[in-house]
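Bench log, entry 3. Co-assembly request; chain sequences pasted below exactly as received.
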Amino acid sequence: MTPEFLAAVIDTLLPGEEALPCGTRAGLDPAAYASAHRAAFDAVAAQAGSDERFARADESARTAILNAVERALPDAFRALLVAVLSDYYEAPPVLAALGWRIDPPQPSGHAMPKLDDPTTERLERVGRRAKLWRA
Amino acid sequence: MPARHEPADVVVVGAGMGGAAFCARLSERAPKLRIVCLERGGWVDTAAMPPWRRDWQRATINDWASSPNLRLKAPTPSPSADYPIDDSATPFKPLMWSSVGGSTINWAAHFPRLHPSDFKTRTLDGVGDDWPFDYFDLEPYYDLNDAAMGVSGLAGDPAYPPKPRRAMPPLALGRLGMTAARGFDALGWHWWPVDAAINSVPHQGRAACNYCGPCQQGCVNRAKASVDVTYWPRAIANGVELRPHCIVRQVVIEAGRATAVIYRDADGREVTQPAAAVVVAGNGIGTARLLLASGLASPALGRNLMFHPAAYARGMFKEELDGPVGPIGCALYSHEFYETDERRGFKRGVHLQVTRENIPLMQALRLEPAWGRDAYRLLREEFRHSIAILVLAEDLPEAHNRVTLTDRTEADGLPGVKVEYTLSEHSRRSLAFGLDRAEDVLRAAGAHRVVRLPLAPLTGWHLLSTARMGSDPATSVTDARGRCHAVPNVLVADGSLFPTVGAVNPGSTIGALALKIADDLAKDIA
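Structure output for the full assembly:
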C-alpha cells in the first residue's frame, strides 16, 4: 500500500470543509492504520482496481468505491472508520475548528448559565398544578 | 484443598448500589453480625479516570464503554472486572460496571423514585403485578437513601407525593434545559428539574459538580455520588469486611439451606466462605447468573427480565446550545404522560427526559453517513445546536424475556450468560407515543428538524426483575423480604427483585429496597 493510497482513503473519509481540516492535515498518519485495518484497505484497492487507481480517482469516484466497500465489508470498514474518527475528533485543530476546547474536561469543567427569569416563572406555573400521581 | 475462612453471619455478593446500601444498613441495625462482602472488581482510582486526559473521548468506546462486551475488546484493560454477555438475542445491549461501587461508578446519577402507581399496576391498571408493599412503605427508605447519596433537586413536583426538601438546589439546566422547558411550557405540559445524586454545591465532604460532562467515565472530583464514596466508608467503619477482586462461583446449597460461597480470590486461590446467610446483589444479570449456576431451583429465576425500552428524539436548533456540557442524564424530565390514559392505546406511561448532548466523537460516530462531506454538514447542524429527549417506556413482565446460562465456561470460572429479550407490542406502542410527544416538545421549543432513534440499543442499563418478589413460588423467586422461596437463607438485594419496573431509572429504588431488605433481615435475626 502506497502512502498516497493510504492518504487518499483517509482524506476521502475525512475530506474537510470550511475551517475543518481534512484527515491528513489534522495530523492523522495514514500509515498508522495500515496493518490493523489491512482487510479494509485491501478491499478498497481491489474495488478500485489498484492502489494507484484509487489514489488518482476524483473524490466522487473514491466516495463510490468506499461506499461499495462499506456495504461489502461493514465490520472491517466500521473498524477503520472508528479508528480514524477517534484520532480526528481528538486532534486539536479539529476541536478548535469546531469551537470546542482542546483541554480535557477536568480539572476546569465548564461554566453553566443560571436559571433565567422566564424559566423560573415557567417552573412556578408547573409547581402550581394539581397532583399528577395516582395511588 | 480450598482455603476456608472463619464463618460469617452474612456474606454479600456484589458491592454496587444494592450490596453497599444493604451492608451499611445491616451493619448499623445489627452491629454484632460479622458481615463479609465479596466483590469481583477492585476500587476504581479517580486519578486514572479519562476526564483528566486529552484522549478522554475514545475511552467512551474502549475501556470506559458502557457495554462490558465492548470493554472486553478494548485495547487497554478496563478497571471493570467484566464477563462477556451473549447479547445476540436482545435489541437492547446490557450495560453494567463491575467494581466496588458497581454501576454507580459510571452511571448518570439521575435519581427518580418510582411513582405510587408503579407499585400497584395490577390493581390500578390490570397489567403486570402489584408489589408486595406500596410506595409509602418504601418511602422512609427512599428518604434514607436520598440522605446517604446526597440529592440535588427541588421539592414541590406535582408528579410525586411530597418529598422532603432536597439536600441541594437543582443542577443548572443550562441553555439546553431552559430551551426545552420553553417547549414544555408552550404545550402546557409538566416538566421539572431532575433529582440527581450529584452535588450542585459542596456536600458531605464532596465537591460540587463543575459540569465537566462525561459522568459515564467516572467522576474525578466525586461530585457524583457513587456508593464507593457514600455507603462503603460507612459500612467499613461499621466493621463490614469488603474483599475486592473476589469472584464468587457458587452459593453452596445443602438440604435446602445455603452453607457457604466458593470464590476465587485476588491471588487466584479457591476459597470457601461459610455463612449463615448469603445475600446476592449482582443485579438482573449477575444475580441470576450466580443463582442459576448454583442450582437454586426456582422456576421464575432468570425470567421476566425487564429493561426500560428506550428511544430518542433529537431536535436541531438555530441557536447555540450547550453541547456536551453538564451531567449527561441530568437536566429535566416530564411526567405529563407517566400515568395510564387508555385513550393512548396502551396502559402505563412514558418518562421523557431531556439529557445533555454527546461528545463530538460520539456524535460523529452515530451520524448517517458518518464519513464524507455529508457527515460534516450533519455534524455542523447538530454540534452545540441540538437537544435530545430520551423516551423511557415501561416494560411489563414476560416470562420469555430472560437470562440463561450457556454451555461455555467463561474466564471467571462461571458459566456463560445469555440475554433473550423481545420488545413487546405494548412497549413498541409506548415508545412510539413517547417519541411523538418528544417531537411535539422539540418543535414547540423551536427545533427546525427532528431526528428519531426509534430504538436505542446501547441503553440496557436497567437490568431488572430476574429474581422478582412475590408470594407464589411458581411466578416469583423471593418473598417480600427478599428471601428466596427455595432457599430462605439466600436473599437478594438489588434490582432483580422488582415485580414491575415503572418507567424511570431504578437506582434510587434499588438503594431504598436494599435498605428495607437489610432492616427486615435485622428484625428477623433479632
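Chain A has a mean pLDDT of 96. Chain A touches chain B through 49 residues (CB under 8 Å).
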